[in-house]
Structure formats: structure tokens, C-alpha cells
Amino acid sequence: MIRVAAIAAALSMIVTGCSSKAENGSDGGSGDVATDVGVEGDTITLGVLTDLTGVFASIGKDMTNGNSLYWKTAKVCDKYTVKLDVQDTQYVPQQGVQLYSSMKSDVLAMQQTIGSPINAALAKDFVADKIVNFPSALGEGLTEIPGTAVLGPTYDVEMSNGLDYLFRKNMLKEGDTVGHIYFEGEYGETGLEGTTHVAKVKKLQVVEAQIKPTDQDMSAQISQFKARGVDAIALTVAPTQLASVAAASQAQGLDVPIVSSAPVFAPGLLAGPTAPWLKSHLYVAAQTSTFEAHPDLYEQYTKAYPKEKSASAGVIFGYGMGEVMKQVLDAACKKGDLTRQGVLDAFEGLKMVDTGGLLVPIDGFTLGRSPSLYSFIYRPADVPGGATIVQDAFLGQFAEALAGS
Question: Which residues cross the membrane (predicted)?
Fold first, then answer.
């Protein structure tokens, strides 16, 4: 599904002024700023390819709201307002390709592109168009795409940190058996790589269960796990499957801890019948903090979106994405170059990204290497955002070996 896009022709150069001081307090530079695509006057347009109606609709909506909330007040170079062109891919790669084709001549960069499959389908387009892209996905293959900012540990590193936490808390021991349910494709398979790596080091037995995103009933997989005597369950799926895993485990008496990648949990699950089971069994390895640690952001969000009944860590991730994009655009503006090439150059020079604790520490973006080795661990709870941190951002014992070159 990966295709090569034609380079947009006849891009006009627009010269505008930039203020002498950027919003973050750094020198914004002075004089004219070169622009080409996605900048009109004092407005920068960024693209958002999200999931509002597919399998990751709940978190997709929260991340997009987080993006929008950030840019309500933030400006690039104290001058440029940012507008978002938001499109719903429904988590369908072909839909994502078509939507990007319709927006690419109007956007400077991609603030969000949800899902490893859609990012893979658009990889060559992004490279050909010199687009800086922030995927709301942590696939290992995404780190190999120039201009792609994976904002956290790759899924294998993330899962290994989650399993490491279970070892630290004596919920797993050497020689145990772990059942892993995972989506086909890079998201699920990269998460499985984390489990299999830990298994080799700790002599674990792994019971694999690959599913499709459309599969919703996990009863058969839980029956298999119970028959194999698993001591823990690992998940790289979506909230729908998590709810089924919890219901089936409870019904079949499989009383073992569940460790998941960040996209698996949504706070809306705490309004359902499996809420008590999730609170007592689920551990989420994530690249984002929680609202407990950022109450001001929660207050800001609820005021901006009063009709939203729940807000997940996806809001924090989306807000953090905006902060990282601003750092890139401010750096490009400081150098007097808000062309796509200028933004790409600024991105490639970004090191040691600090988001004030919204996201885990990010070392920078080296091709083929996980941008971070750290994960938060949180659990479902009746608090704002539906999750409470039980382990602040930490580097697990297996992470470095999985990080890449």
C-alpha cells in the first residue's frame, strides 16, 4: 500500500517577518523568513490524519483534542497562528493515503498521523514531500523514515518495560508463561518482539495469539491461555479487545496480571462491567504521564471541551505532540526558514526533547533507534483521566538491547 507521490510543482515562495523572541523565551531571530507550502500570511497549516470512527476512535479523538487545545494559545515565533486540517482515516490505510493526497499541497507538516499501518502506507509520500510527520504510533519501522518523530519508546521497548515492572513487583519470575494477544501488523508484532526478547533473557514460555483489529471476542484466546497455565497476559490490541479479555478472564477464573501497551486502555472502560477487574489486574506501559500529574491541563481541557465525558492520556499525548512540533517550528523560524526543507533540517537538529513531564524523556531522532528507552506505568483508577501512575518514567533492564543502533 506504500506508493511514491509526485513532488508538488510550482511552489511559490512567500517572505514574511518573524519576531525577535519565540514563545519559549529563546531568540526567535529577525529579518525575513522563507516559506513555501502551508504558510499563508501569519497562519501555518498542519495536517492531522486521525481515527475518529474506527477501532482507535476514542484515543484518536482525545489526541486530536489535545493537538487543538495546544494550538489554541501557542504561536510559532510569537507570530504565526497554527491551523489544523483534521481528517478521519477510520484507521483504514487506503483512506489515509487518499486524504493525505487531498491535503498535502496545503500543509507544512503533519501534526498527527494515527496508526502504524497508515504511516507505513504513506512513508514514501512523506519522504518525497519532505514532510515532518508525528505519528501517533510507536512502531519500530517508523523510526527508519526520515522526518518521522516517534514520540516515545518503540512498542517492543514499551512492552519490555511493562514486563520488567511485573518482574520488579514479583508478579513474574524466571521460567513463567506469558500469553500475548496482538494485532497483525507492525503495532502488534513489534509489541510481541518485546515479549519474545524478555522471554529469551528470562527463560519464559510465550503463548502467541495473533488477531485482526476486527476480532472482538477473546474468549477462545483466554481459554487457550488458561489451558497453558499462563502467569500473565500481554496485550498489543485496542480497548475493545481489552474489555473482552477482562470479561473472559473473570468468567473463566484466569486470575493473572495483564500488561498492555498504551493504546490498549481507554478510561471509558471504567464505566463498563469489567471496571473492577481492570482496576485490580491491568498495568499499562505508556509514553505519557497522567492528569494526576498535570491537573492544570485537565482543568484547561474540561473548560475547552465541557461536553466530553472522559479524557484519556491521549489528550496529554496530543498536547505534548503540539509542544514538540512548536520546538521544531520555532527552531526553523529562528533560522529564517519555514519551508518544508527548513522544518526538516530543524527537526533533524533536535536533541534531548523536554516536554515538562508530559511525555517520557526523548533523546532525539536517530534513524533506526528508539527515541526513548523510558516508560511510565499506570493503572486504571477513579481519578481524572481514569489512570494513576504507579511508576514514574523509568528505563527497564531490557530496553537498551531492543533500542536499535
Answer: none
